[in-house]
Amino acid sequence: MKKILVAFGTRPEIIKLTPVMHELKSSDFDVITLHTGQHNQLAEEMLQLFRIEPNYDLKSMGTTSDLFELTEFLLPKIKQLLYTVKPDSVIVQGDTTSAFLCALAAFYLKIPVYHVEAGLRSFDIYNPFPEEVNRKQISGIASAHFAPTSQAKQNLLNEGVDPSVIFETGNTVIDALYKIKELKQYANSVPEILREIPEEEKLILVTAHRRENHGEPLEQIMSALVEILDQHEQLLILFPAHPSPAVQEIVHLEDYKHPRLKVIQPLSYLSFHHVLDRCDVILTDSGGIQEEAAALGKTLLVLREKTERQELIESGFTKLLGSDKKLIVKETLKVLASGISRQKFNPYGNGDASKKIVHLIKNQL
């Protein structure tokens, strides 16, 4: 039986790797799970929801203050773990620093690395930081690249990656999106705040947490939200705020208080998806939410200067607004005035990405 180590450390990684782990187990692989531990409370909720008990937890949250210390803390521990477990291969997802460090440690020990969600590029090494460099470094190490879209595949080809090890699979976040609605507890997870919103009232969902939006950019975003509400009466904005102190200290400032701007604690994954279903417009700097918005056909505006989801921009599905207050107000009011309708553009697959990935691992890799 082949032994595969699957590494994750953040809530998005758990969401996107859970379908892969389930498929691996049902295909008789010996799956060893490593939780590097950057997200504590957010990750714990996901682990409980998907009934995952990590074999190893490195508990990195709270032990480090910057990327230097995170690297210094994790790399030796991952090295020792790989010596102990001796996996036949390692799976990492996306672009976190821990994903890169797991890939690097595996490379040092000549263990094959399989990269889920490979090939995303913003073409700016500092935006997003440090994710753009992390994913490029993983691409230089990986033995197999599971690209979510044709654009991601082309990015890898343009960088000279061997075409025989690039596989276009779709994105596993769509697998997770479809699977959660099959869970028994989904129907009972409607957040109370949704029950209080009249059907005729428009709802905007906002998330903003990336490093590049900390400080003044987030202040500009919050100011824009208040102005949008001042200019549109039949509207509520819901902002589940990331627990990061850099986010919390700004979103609760008196300057941004408004009776129809609801800044709330992060929602559970199931509750958040009820909000996704209900909302009319999404303003976000999250990568995964961009993908989910496309799958759901939701009107989307991106609070970033650049995005690695290039296909969403090139198709006209969404626009990049950054943290420009005037642009955020202008474009949001424009979509509200034009009428909200479902948009048909989903380049991320039909929810079978994890099946394709495991089939490839089992039969070709």
From the N-terminal CA to the C-terminal CA, the straight-line distance is 14 Å
User: What would you report as the Rg, rounded to the nearest angstrom?
Assistant: 20 Å
Largest sheet, spatial ordering of strands: 3-2-1-4-5-6-7
DSSP summary: helix tally: 15
Q: What is the CATH-assigned architecture of the largest domain?
A: 3-Layer(aba) Sandwich
Helix content: 40-55%
CATH class of the largest domain: Alpha Beta
Number of strands: 13
Task: Kindly name the structural category.
Answer: alpha/beta
Basic shape = globular
Number of domains: 2
Q: What share of residues are in beta strands?
A: 15-25%
Written description of the protein model:
44% of the residues lie in helices and 16% in strands. It is α/β, with parallel strands linked by helices and 365 residues long. It folds into two domains: 3-171 and 349-363, Glycogen Phosphorylase B (Rossmann fold), CATH 3.40.50.2000; 191-338, Rossmann fold (3-Layer(aba) Sandwich). The strands form two sheets. It has a seven-stranded parallel β-sheet, with helices on both faces. Strand 2 (30-35), helix 2 and strand 3 (56-57) form a beta-alpha-beta unit. The longest helix has 19 residues, at 67-85. The chain starts with a strand and ends with a helix. The mean pLDDT is 92.
